[in-house]
Amino acid sequence: MNKRNNYTLKLGYLKIAIPKTEWYQRLVFGFMVCLSTLSFSPQLADMSNIVRFTFTAIAVLIALIFGRQYIKNNLPITIGTVAFTLFVALQMVSILWAPNKAEAVFEVAKWAIVFVTLLFTYSFARQKPAHFITMMAVVSGVIFIISLIFAIYQMSQLGDFSWSSRYAITSLFTHKGTYSIMIFLSMAFPLLRLRLRPSLTTKVFYIILLATQIGMILFLQARATWVAMAATIIALTIIGFRISYKWYYVVATTLIFCVVLVGGLRLFCQYELNEPGQEGGLRASASIHERHGLWKMTFRMVDEHPILGCGTGNWKVCYPSAGTYDIFSINTLDYNFSRPHDDYLRILSETGYIGLTLIITSLISLLLRALSTKRNRYGKLARLTIAFIIGIMGFTVFDFPIDRMEIFIWITLICATAATLSLPKHINKQIKRYETLYFVSVIIITLSLFIGITRWRSESHYVDIVTSIRNRQWKEVEMHCNKARTSWYNLTPLGMPIAYYEGMALEYQNKPAIETFHSALKASPWCKQVLTDLGRLEYKIKQNTDTAILFLQKAIKISPAYSYAYFNLAQLYIYEHEWQKAIEVLDMLDLDKKEHELKRMTWHYHHGETADYYINKLVTTERKTMHRIRKQAETMQ
User: Fold this and answer.
1) pLDDT-derived band at 336, boundaries 50, 70, 90
2) Lowest mean pLDDT, pick from 12-21, 93-102, 313-322
3) Which helix (H) or strand (E) holds 7?
4) Within 13 Å of residue 117, how many CA atoms lie on the same side as its CB?
5) What's the pLDDT tens digit per position in 553-601?
6) Pairing relation of β-strands 14-19 and 6-11?
7) 565 backbone dihedrals φ, ψ, rounded to 5°
């Protein structure tokens, strides 16, 4: 398509070519743009998310119709590309049955950005792969050097270099594990650059860079990254062979991988882990204990929704429905989690066995396609790239790279490079330009970034909410809740509804709060705090005894160690003159077991005296409350 057939839209240095078409095509294209705008418009704040999704789905459908020629001519149609496209489509459709639409829409926005990134990276890399690899190697080196400067400064502030102290070394990132895996991923392009026969100076620079990166990974002691490195090294030693690329090889390998993965994780969950000092059984650290409990709960979720899952982005909303069973976070002494620490299980629980099969099929297809290439220049580069992908697949069993956008995008760049090198027939060929898809992709990325920026701003207000609660400034809490809650953000990073904090602020100001708590329950139907406070208010405000009891019993069923649900239910029975039932409820609460579980989860991360102090303080307070309520019931009885 030449310039005479295009309108050119200039935005600074960016030029977007909009194709001249027939009047009816322009009308349809304008209709698609209007739908895209309407689907994210603030004027639709009171409309249901299903209506929003309908608008978005229609817009995306029309976009695919406009881009069909581009996809046909420039995107290779393989089992892998079809599987990944279907997986992204399943993510979008799962909004319909997801309990929390805001989290689902945000997750879909992330996958939309990844899909467009994959498409364009493949398009750019295939024109001149060597230039693209060189550019990415330079970018990798610059990012690592800058992050290393910050890491060295953080190391200089440490009093010692113990294993727990190294958690403070996060560089530009939020967690030591994130920094460690980013170092690992940034090694891919420098290694590829070394295979392109650079000059002696360039070769020495990248060798020093890689040695420093390996040293930092070993120093940080992030074990999941060590697993990724080990898997990559093993892959490099065994993938020298060549196989034929057949569709039935892809299917068979995918089925074997899924069976081994799911079966192995289920088998691990059946074992009981030992405790500190206990002989026999499987010895494990607190982090392994934590994952062991989370994975068991996730499989309970999978058993409830095995085919299509609970909805994308909704693991942290739905996992309490499986029963927490004394699973505590080592940081909060509570059970709040936002992910299962295994992205395979997260995909399985959110999109079911269909989703897991599709994403594994796309990865296996990419690996086998690379192994089918000749051992020439591009074939060797392709094998080196998929060795890193195998490392990422091993890392994903123990961590959550998909949850971190910077890691997710970097993985996408590596996968797109592997796809380019695995299809040498498509390399260095002129791309037929279909600017419509470029324009539509800009719209998709813009809307996705709008959602992400909105959520980022909302999270800044959430920090203000927490600060205001600590200072007991309830009007400030209410104000920040109104600013934080949007169509794309109504849960905190750990799954607490924003409306819960608003309801708390309203109640402290003696304002009607029960409807706000019901809104919080819609956002997170299995939140123990919301259920407990709703049960208390249903009895206190509306005198709905049966409804209150149901809410409180549900909270106890979800979290058998949540003391305040027991205390409120026992207090309700006392007000209803059912003192024996109140005593029976208190008898159900085993604080000795709770104290034991808390200490078991914290022994590996903290000095024993420090951990015991906070745990004893928490449990002692709860024991005093239970003793007071029990004494009240026994006296009245």
Assistant:
1) low
2) 12-21
3) strand 6-11
4) 20
5) 998 888 888 888 999 999 999 888 888 898 898 888 888 777 766 666 5
6) antiparallel
7) -65, -40
Contact 417, 133 (CB under 8 A): yes
Q: b/e per residue, 155-193, with b = 16+ CB within 10 A?
A: eeeeeeeeeeebeebbbebeebbbbbbbbbbbbbbbbbb
| Strand, helix or coil for residue 579 | helix
| Tokens at 563, concatenated | 């003391």
Average pLDDT over residues 478-489: 83
- For residues 224 and 367, what is the distance between their CA atoms, to the nearest angstrom? 21
The CA distance from 215 to 230, in Å, is 14
Per the structure block, which two tokens stand in for 432?
A: 């037929």
3 state SS of 160? coil
Q: How far apart are CA 635 and CA 436, in angstroms?
A: 78
How far, in Å, CA of 9 to CA of 54, rounded?
29
151 touches 180 (CB < 8 A):
no
Collapsing DSSP states into helix, strand and coil, what is residue 311? coil
Query: What is the C-alpha separation between 298 and 610, in angstroms, rounded?
Result: 31
- pLDDT tens-place string over residues 181-239: 889 999 999 999 998 888 889 899 999 999 999 999 999 888 888 888 999 988 888 87
3-state secondary structure 559-625: CCCCHHHHHHHHHHHHHCCCHHHHHHHHHHCCHHHHHHHHHHHHCCCCCHHHHHHHHHHHHHHHHHH
Residue with tokens 């046909």: 72
Token digits of residue 527: 């939140």
Residue of 629, 563, 550 lying closest to 595 (CA atoms): 563
Asked if residues 294 and 337 have their Cβ atoms less than 8 Å apart, the reply is yes
The answer to whether residues 370 and 385 touch, using CB atoms and an 8 Å cutoff, is yes
Look up residue 631 and give its two tokens. 């004494």
Q: Which residues pair with 273 in a beta bridge?
A: 282
3-state secondary structure of 14: strand
∠ CA 310-416-1, nearest 5°, is 105
The pLDDT, as a whole number, for residue 442 is 62
Residue with tokens 């935005």: 11
d(CA 601, CA 85): 41
Give yes or no for residue 179 having a pLDDT over 80: yes
Backbone angles phi, psi at 266, to 5 degrees: -65, -40
More confident call, 332 vs 376: 376
Enter the DSSP assignment of 600. H
Quote the CA–CA distance of 535 and 193 in Å, as a whole number. 62
Strands of 335-379, DSSP E:
none
> How many C-beta atoms lie closer than 10 Å to residue 20's C-beta?
12
> What is each CA distance from 473 to 130, 152, 169, 462, in whole angstroms?
58, 39, 34, 14
What does the alpha-carbon distance between residue 407 and residue 334 come to, in Å, rounded to a whole number? 28
Q: What is the mean pLDDT of the chain?
A: 78
H-run or E-run covering 11: strand 6-11
Residue type, 500: Y
Q: Is-contact 526 320, C-beta < 8 A?
A: yes
73, 98, 103, 125, 486 from 46: Cα distances, Å? 42, 19, 17, 44, 11
The conformation of residue 273, written as its DSSP 8-state character, comes to B
DSSP, residue by residue, 470-483: HTT-HHHHHHHHHH
Overall pTM > 0.90: no
Q: State residue 18 phi and psi, 5-degree precision.
A: -105, 120
Q: What is the mean pLDDT of residues 153-158?
A: 86
